[in-house]
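Ticket #4471: structure export looks truncated?
Reporter: QA, pipeline team
Priority: medium

Steps to reproduce: submit the single chain below to the structure queue and open the exported record.
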Amino acid sequence: MKYLFKVNLIGCLIILFSACNHSSPNYLTGKVTDPQIQSLLLLGINQDMRFDSIIEIPVKNGKFHYQFEFDQPMAFDLMLGSAKENGGGRFMPLFLQDSDVELTVHPEEDFKKNKVQGGKLNEEYKSFQNYIDSISSKKHDFKFEDELALGDSHIRINSSIVSYYLFLSNLIYFPEFVDLRKAKVYYKDLSESNKMHPYNELAKNLLEAMENVKIGNEYIDFSAPDMNGDEFKLSTEIEGKVALLNLWATWCGPCIKKSREVVPIYEKYKDQDFALINVAGEFRDTQRLEKFFENEKWPGINLVELDRQNNIWQKYGVDGAGGGMFLIDQTGKLIAINPSSEEINIELEKRLIK
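Actual output as written to the record:
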């Protein structure tokens, strides 16, 4: 009897503990002012609407309703559903946490009129944006760099998900403006204030790429499968050779053009310790890649990065891009980043032709 009482007590405590630690659902509701708006999209940080599974909220009779439940506060870019067909469009940052949110959404040309009610993070972002607007209205020569500087100030004094959103956006889209020394300090504060948040790994990879993917530094090793599923390790395939790592994708026209220019270079140097490693960044499946190779054969070793499973693009600092090229010498040092075919030829002549 005592044993049964203890078991029941433990069971009740487990249920009570679970109820206290499990977030209850919240709701994103609202209306649109244009009957042409059929749906809304929520893109997470670093998501690509062409390939990633994104949240699409249907609009019915001018209204929408979406139930959400996240363990951590999350940042999204709100876009109109038509952005999928148009290949992009205007967006509005939106933050979802443990509170209901109500929206009024206007057509793209009036996106500045959108209204957000609910959530401390949305209030924080609104105050930040209002501050930028007030500064820019008083300064006739207000530049993009000025806006980045204001965002930098916000990140420096806040460790919220709003700051994390601004921080990651800078790392992904504006790395040329990022001060790496300061970014490391910001990352330390943000990751410690948002423990176990999925943004921490993304930020870590992006910062490591900024620091490590430089001429004179060693390449970053990885493993990836070929079309048959056999695993290849980069370090094994290029040891003691001059190597060209070619990150490309079937949906990236410039990548394909540049990759084709490498074919005659490979044929010229393939017998002189030159390795060509092509990695195709594909999504969902390899059907498009298989069809591509039916019509076009590429030399070297051809590998696949499916659905960012090895984070290769992140590690090489080209996340958000179709790809990039990296020339590596016999000692494993990077000697050129995104070189032209002429530059590749010059480097190979210096290192391989006796």
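Status: closed, not a bug. The export was complete when the record was re-opened. Leaving a note from the reviewer for reference: The first strand starts at residue 26 and ends at 32.
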